Amino acid sequence: MIKTHEIKAQSRKDEGKGASRRLRHASFVPAVVYGAGQAPQSIQIEHNTILLAAKHEWFFSSVLDLNVDGSVQKVLVRDWQKHPFKQLMMHMDFLRVDENVAIRVSVPLHFLNQEKSAAGKTSGVVISHNLTEVEISCLPKDLPEFIELDLGELNPGDIVHLSELKLPANVEIVALHLGESHDIAVVTANTVQEEVEEAPAEGDAAAPVAAAPAKKDDKK
To answer: Which of 64, 75, 149, 215 is surrounded by the most beta carbons within 10 Å?
Structure first.
């Protein structure tokens, strides 16, 4: 069952840098909603609402119920601007979605049972997660919050490609439609060989350098 996540917002009429600055001082985040053949709408959201939601993966990869003044519309987070060093969201863009039209979204990968696998238990094996998210295409109702990859059977030397991911029904990986060369490695389990420095053979040691004779003082 697909979870629903509601974000409450209010419409706004004041626009421009000055209006946005005043909103931020009042602990609101200025935002815009656009798409689905409708006119863009300027909105404002309480900063704490955004700050709490942004701590979850679903906020950036799920279809959200954006409640603007009591009217709910389905949206995706399409862009956001954060303060360079403060824990502040400066601006957000939301894209309206048509429930009958496929969307393309990057969703996170969750890696399971890696420590239980043969590769995970073998000394000298480095398991690399080459991807942490993957772009998929599906109808909004079929959008998963994440995709799980079970690594319980991973052995040293194994490579897991995009085509080996187990996807929910009606979900496709965008890259796989571009050809076999785009079926890249998601996880690799490589054995790292330690370099052992060889000890010098007997007789190969350099002979000690004789000390240079001391110079005698010239007598006049």
So the answer is: 75
Pairing of strands 28-35, 125-129: unpaired
Please, what sign has the CA dihedral across residues 147, 153, 158, 164? negative
pTM for the structure as a whole:
0.76
Closest CA relative to residue 191, chosen from 159, 164, 150: 159
Single-letter amino acid code for the residue at 198? E
Q: What is the CATH number of domain 6-96?
A: 2.40.240.10
Residues of the chain with CATH 2.40.240.10: 6-96
Residue 200: φ, ψ to 5°: -65, 140
What would you measure as the largest C-alpha separation in the chain, in angstroms? 111
